[in-house]
Structure formats: C-alpha cells, structure tokens
C-alpha cells in the first residue's frame, strides 16, 4: 500500500526559491514528485541535455528543460 506524502505546494502554485543556487527566483510549479520530495518550477534550474538524432528530432541538438528542486527549498509566493 502506497503511503501518501503531504506537501505544501501543488501544481500551478506560484513559488519562490528560498535557498540554494537559484535563491530568489520564482515561477509556477509544473510538477510535484512527493515521494522524492522534489518539484519542477517553470524557468528555474534549466538543464541542458544533449539529444541524439531521432525520428522525432531529426536535427538532434541541445534541449533546455527544467530540473528538480527539493521541496524544502521553495515557499508559496505571496498572493495579491
């Protein structure tokens, strides 16, 4: 039986990073991984990934995508 993990943020919440290399940056939560304790935030911690040529991506190249940040390093942004 899977144990439910409580989290203070959910998808589409506006959050601010409070510690780490990306301190002070803010964005919208794209995805939450409660079992790992991580979140993906739009435009924060962009990672460059080298993609091989394939049918989907015939030119290959470098892809930028968001990387996970630990959930304890973010807080909800103040609502207006």
Write up what this structure looks like.
0% of the residues lie in helices and 42% in strands. By secondary structure, it is mostly beta strands. It has a single domain (14-76), classed as SH3 type barrels (Roll). It has a 5-stranded antiparallel beta sheet with strand order 6-3-2-1-7, with no helix packed on it. Strands 4-5 form a two-stranded antiparallel sheet. Strand 2 (26-33) and strand 3 form a beta hairpin. The mean pLDDT is 91.
Short summary:
The protein has a single domain, classed as SH3 type barrels. It contains no helices and seven strands.
Task: Please give the structural blueprint.
Blueprint: E1 14-17, E2 26-33, E3 38-41, E4 46-51, E5 61-66, E6 68-70, E7 74-76
Antiparallel strand pairs: 1-2, 1-7, 2-3, 3-6, 4-5
The low-pLDDT segments are: none
| Count of distinct structural domains | 1
The Cα radius of gyration reads 15 Å
- Kindly report the average pLDDT value: 91
Query: What would you call the structural class?
Result: mainly beta
Measured by DSSP, the beta-strand proportion falls in 35-45%
CATH structural architecture: Roll
Task: Name the overall outline.
Answer: globular
Largest sheet: 5 strands, antiparallel
Termini separation comes to 40 Å
Key traits:
80 residues, SH3 type barrels, two-stranded antiparallel ribbon, 7 strands, mainly beta
């Amino acid at each position: 039986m899977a144990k439910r993990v409580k989290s203070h943020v959910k998808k589409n919440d506006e959050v601010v990073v409070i510690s780490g290399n990306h301190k002070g940056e803010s964005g919208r939560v794209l995805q939450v991984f409660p079992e790992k304790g991580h979140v993906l935030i739009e435009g924060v911690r962009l990672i460059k990934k080298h993609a091989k040529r394939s049918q989907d991506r015939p030119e290959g190249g470098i892809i930028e995508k968001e990387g996970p940040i630990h959930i304890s390093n973010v807080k909800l942004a103040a609502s207006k």
